[in-house]
Amino acid sequence: MTVSWKSWSNLFCICLLLFAAEALAQDFHLAPVNLTVLQGTSALFRAKVTGKWEVMTWTVGKLLVLTVSLPNGNSTSFPGQYSSRFCSSADTSCVEFIIHNVNRNQSGSVDCAVQGDYGQRTAQLNIQESGTVSIMGGNLTVEQDQQVEFQCVATAWFPIPTVSWNQNGQAVNSSLYNTTSMADGDSINSTSVLKFQAVSNTTVECQATVSELKDPQSSSVFLVVVPKPPDWTVLIAVVVSFGSLALLVLLIIGIIFCYKRRKEKQRNYQDEMSKRVRTQSQSVASAAGQKQGQVNAGYVADGRTSVTPSDLTDSGFGQVNGSNSYEMPDVVNSNQAGNGYNSTYNTVDDSGFRKHRHVTIV
What we know:
Layout: H1 5-25, E1 28-31, E2 34-38, E3 43-49, E4 55-60, E5 63-69, E6 74-77, E7 82-88, E8 91-99, E9 108-114, E10 119-128, E11 132-135, E12 140-143, E13 147-157, E14 162-167, E15 170-171, E16 177-184, E17 187-197, E18 202-209, E19 217-226, H2 233-288, E20 327-329, E21 335-337, E22 340-348, E23 354-361
């Protein structure tokens, strides 16, 4: 009995289908393939097995941490931070693997293996860290229209946090602030600086977050804006300008006044000098027309109580009634000065004594 080529082809296809069905019956899946959680929370993976299995193992970071065995699903974990359970009590094909209170050291690969022909599946665990947020300096009071600056520091975050600002609950344009980050050990610190012009009282809030943080960490301060004092610059400039101008005008007027006073004094002095010269000239001319001397009315001869001007002559001789005495001018001792002269008279009385007298003629 011979078998045709067609029969052999059909038989091969049937065997191939049976092998594929058996392979599918022994397949399993691990989800999620990539999981990100916050430090301190729990990470959950699910392994779904198609077909019969007896032992399942879980490895975190190359360390075998949990083993699950059928039929009752007993598990053995090391340390006690790990646990497992069936997705439902009636479905043993789905197993949940839980890592409690995860930490940064557990970041990396998570492997699930099923004994037999199922093989191994790998997922990736990422752990984020939420730090603290603080606005430096606290509340601030400034004058209106003054430029203000706020600095927000986000400490001990991983990965780099997203920092944003709010004013009175409204998001601030990212062009108004600048954020820089720096590694600090296995964590990251970020600093954000916000600058704007103060207009009115404002609540300023800084927020920092990472993708798995539901509610951002925040810090807020209150900005008090007070009216700025009047700007006296323009008024002062105007006052100074007018004051300087007025001072200059007064200075010019003072100079002109002093110059006029000086010219007037010079004129008065010249007039006074001219008047004095004329007066002196007139006095000299008047004196020239008068006689050269006058009789000293105070001279009294011997035996007389008074003398009249008629008793003296211009020649200098004096006569006394009832006496033979006479007076001679002492020409030698006379001293002429100016328009007058002094005369010395010698008188001889009846007793023969000579008396000496002086007459001053002016």
